[in-house]
User: Fold this.
Amino acid sequence: MLSYTGLYRFEGDKFITTVDVSWNESWTGTDQVRFYTLDGDRLDIVTAWMPNPIHPEREIARGILSWERAKDRLRVVRGSQS
Assistant:
């Protein structure tokens, strides 16, 4: 689990959040940079490469979050009145 909040700005293919509150206190007051691509209904957000905190034997890692817009699930049901 992680979370942070703050004002953000877009620059080319990245967005930068100036963190005002974070689960990780060392992020508070810093700029967190994320890269993104938007392709149709799919949004990918990618971190920069960084030292791998979970698997030290793998020197570097990056996080990738992907979302896909849900297809419209609404149905029109026709009824009759009497």
Summary: The CA atoms of residues 42 and 68 lie 4 Å apart. Strands lie at 4-11, 14-22, 31-39, 42-47, 50-51, 60-61, 64-68.
